[in-house]
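ok trying again, last paste got cut off:
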Amino acid sequence: MFDFHIHLARLPQKKQLTQLLLDRNYDFIAIACEPWEWKEILLLKKVFSSGLKPFKAAYGIHPMIAQQATDDMFAKLRAIIKEDKRAMVGEAGIDKRYPGYEDGTQDRVFLEQAKLALEFQRDLQIHCVGDYMRVLKLLTKAGFPQDEPWLYSAPRPIFHRFGGDVAFLKRALPYGALFSLHADSFRKKSTAATIPLIPQERVFFETDADESFWQGKTGRNNAADNVTTDPGTPEYIRGRLKSGMTSSEESGMTSSEESGMTNSVESGMTSSEESGMTNCAESGATSSAESVILTLAEGKDPVQFTPEECASELESRLESVRAAYAKCRE
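nice, full thing came through this time. structure:
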């Protein structure tokens, strides 16, 4: 299995869980979207990366902290990307719900990271809420060409937790874009209708798992009804403020080792066919009766569940997204 976007540093018992995921051949890209998270992922990478199984990671500045970005923060990010020869850049992006969207701060922070991806020839993990076309304009401004020059190699824009429509897809394909699907991707009618049109070699799956992993199992359709805790949501921000943690927390960096990247062939993709929203809504991504809620504040160490249970739930969630994708191709 290949989880294209997971926040390992935000999960409980992260060292034990990471070892377990690697033992289970659960491949992943560990996302770090603010300085404290960079530090945690670098530490995990130092422990678990090897020549046979490189630890894959991405480091960036999430739009939720765009107004807190400093020259020092960018310098540290650049040093990490330069040191880790195969690291992605991100999660970077645009989010209309947060400060810095209207005044252009988010644009500037995104552009800096897009240019970093171009400079070091790295893929760019993109977070977008509410303004996908704006992201494409910023990619053009940064210098990303629109003639698919690097479909099979970095740098490529990766639209994480994809939520765009057909019009956006047509505009994004010439950039060599990749699309990472989450259970949420199948909820919006326009996105669900778009997913089968994405070329199969550009499709990946993700859990976007973050914060602590276990609030309790329920018998209802959580995949469709849960409040998400994507680091860009108000629920997540409120949780962090409640826990007394500031998102601009700085920390020292450790040296990193090379990480690897697998392609869409290893992710087990199959061909796409056109499909409507009905089939997508009936798919496995929204029908797991025992999915869990990711809502516990960062830093809390839950003891009521085990790394084994976390790993099993991650596998279940990722498989449900794969099943949803397969259903949409029928």
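cool. The chain has one domain: 2-328. DSSP finds eleven helices and eight strands in the chain.
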